[in-house]
Amino acid sequence: MIQATAPGKVILVGEHAVVYGRPAIAAPVWQTVATATLVAGAPGSGCHILAPDVGLSLHLAEADNDEPLAVVARLALERLGFDRMPDWQIDLHSEIPIASGMGSGAALSTALVRAIMLGAGQEPKPAIVSDLVYESERFYHGTPSGIDNTVIAHGVPIWFVKGHPPQPFTPARPITLAIADSGIRSPTKETVGEVRRAWNADPPRFEQIFDEIGHTVLAARRALEDGDVPALGRILDTNQTLLERLAVSSPALDALIAAARQAGALGAKLSGGGRGGNIIALIDEHGGPGVCDALRAAGARRVIVTQIGYARA
Ligand code: MEV
After folding, report:
1. In percent, how much of the chain has pLDDT > 90?
2. Average model confidence (pLDDT) across the chain
3. Which of 58, 157, 213, 221 could share a disulfide with 17, CB 3.0–4.6 Å?
């Protein structure tokens, strides 16, 4: 039996603008993971992929080409040089809420590709896994920047610019985030598509907002390198204002963000595609429990606390 996992993720700063070439910063969230378990099946049984969390049971030889997990599995097998289907059953499970900005689709695909590579006796190198998973991201995001597959496959915080190798980095001081789920599902493909339509209608206006987001990402990098956590909080707030101008926030997200700030968070913003899904709040060692309670009282379905910049146990 072979097991492989992949983390969820948050975008710290820069979502949406990253699709248009601006930088963004993302980090894995190991508190919530997708897992793939591969076992050998009877000779001639073929390759079955079961993902009950997303209601999926597929026989790889017969699966449609519009099924992202089938596409990514076939690509992985092709790359590994399989000329016939291996006799494997692969079970996929995920704790990561779907369509909520935490990279659930990319994490399922990453766990699947890792299990396939391990099953074939190959080391699942992050850059190769990321390239393969990018193909399935097209189904989830339409025009993905590649940030989700990259941060999830590498499993470390990254500075990311579309089309360039990611730069892993460690903040000078670890930071703590509360991640709160609004419970509203919002497929990234839809928000990315809406931003694209709005950009098509008025490119100069949207390019200007993307530039401003790009500046906040640079400022966030400086704050992280300087260990200036209060400055980072203010930058998250600025990024949220810019995301509101892109019309990807929502009353439910605004309410969670306001609750976090009132309870003492240093800054808060939506994370990922927006409209629904998760917000992140930057908290310090004293304010944490109060912010988490306030988020729950404001309707958060789940609150995860994660650290960025601590060595993973
Ligand atoms: C989704 O996690 C981040 C977006 O910028 C989409 C993408 O980069 O592909 C909204």
Report:
1. 87
2. 94
3. 213
Contacts of 213 (CB under 8 A, 6+ apart): 13, 14, 16, 17, 22, 239, 242, 243
In angstroms, rounded to a whole number, what is the distance separating the alpha carbons of residues 204 and 20? Answer: 13
Strand ranges in 152-290 using DSSP code E only, listed in sequence order: 158-160, 167-168, 175-181, 267-271, 278-283
> Total structural domains in the chain?
2
- 144 and 227 share one domain: no
24 lies in the same domain as 146 = yes
Residue 300 has pLDDT above 50, yes or no: yes
- Structure confidence by residue, pLDDT tens digits, 62-96: 998 888 999 999 999 999 999 899 999 999 999 99
Residue 313 counted as domain residue: no
Residue 144 CA to ligand 1 center (angstroms) comes to 6
Residues 202 and 63 in one domain: no
Cα dist from 74 to 5, 85, 112, whole Å: 19, 9, 11
Domain enclosing residue 291, as ranges: 175-308
Mean pLDDT across 184-211 = 96
Confidence of residue 313 (pLDDT cuts 50, 70, 90): very low
Who lines ligand 1 at CB under 6 A?
Answer: 11, 15-16, 18-19, 101, 141, 144-145, 147-148, 188, 192, 272-273
Which atom belonging to ligand 1 lies closest to the Cα atom of 143?
Answer: 9
- Residue 87 domain-assigned (yes or no): yes
Span from the CA of 298 to the centroid of ligand 1 (angstroms): 26
Nearest CA to ligand 1 atom 1: 272
| 235 Cα: distance to centroid of ligand 1 (angstroms) | 19
Choosing from 153, 168, 183, the residue where a domain stops is 168
Same domain assignment for residues 114 and 251: no
